[in-house]
Amino acid sequence: MHREGMHVDELILRLLEAHAITDQTDLLARLAAEGHALTQSTLSRRLKRLGVQKVQGRYRRVEAGATAMPDVALAEAPPNLLVLRTAPGFAQALGLALDRDPAPGQVGTLAGDDTVFVAVLPERLADVKAHLARVLGAG
């Protein structure tokens, strides 16, 4: 990455530390005020690369492995959904972890603040649920 890109990344992290930024529009405006006009898609890619996620309503840098994952409750919503409930602020990290290493039959995830919906092929619902229960220690 060239020097200008590193400067923008450092500025993003400083702004997130100094302000309770709750949406990307606010962050884009603050960056523009500092002389850095980014598109929303470019900002999203930078946030992902920097390990920044929305936690408890505000954007923060989340260190990989820095926090142990809290307990997860797992429930079925037939014919093809699993519902994972966790502590507030942890669902997005959980969804990302599931997307990085999907179980066979897992189609995708949708994460909120404390809930992750896992879409699966209907015929694989029991298999994916058993796999996630083993991996997450959920019940």
Radius of gyration, Cα only, in angstroms? Answer: 18 Å
Number of domains: 2
Described by its quaternary structure, the protein is: single chain
Specify the CATH class of the largest domain.
Alpha Beta
The CA-CA distance between the termini, in Å, is: 44 Å
- Main sheet, how many strands, which sense, barrel? 4 strands, antiparallel
> Could you give the count of β-strands?
6
CATH structural fold name of the largest domain: Gyrase A, domain 2
Low confidence ranges: none
Overall form? elongated
- Please identify the structural class as seen in this structure: alpha+beta
SSE string: HHHEEEEHEEH
Discrete helix count: 5
Please, could you describe this protein's structure?
This protein is of the alpha+beta class and 139 residues long. The protein has two domains: 3-61, Orthogonal Bundle (Arc Repressor Mutant, subunit A), CATH 1.10.10; 73-136, Gyrase A, domain 2. Helices cover 42% and strands 22% of the residues. It is built from five helices and six strands. The chain has a four-stranded antiparallel beta sheet, with helices on one face. Strand 1 (52-55) and strand 2 form a beta hairpin. The longest helix has 16 residues, at 3-18. It is elongated, with a radius of gyration of 18 Å.
Which tags fit this structure?
139 residues, alpha+beta, Arc Repressor Mutant, subunit A, 2 domains, 4-stranded antiparallel beta sheet
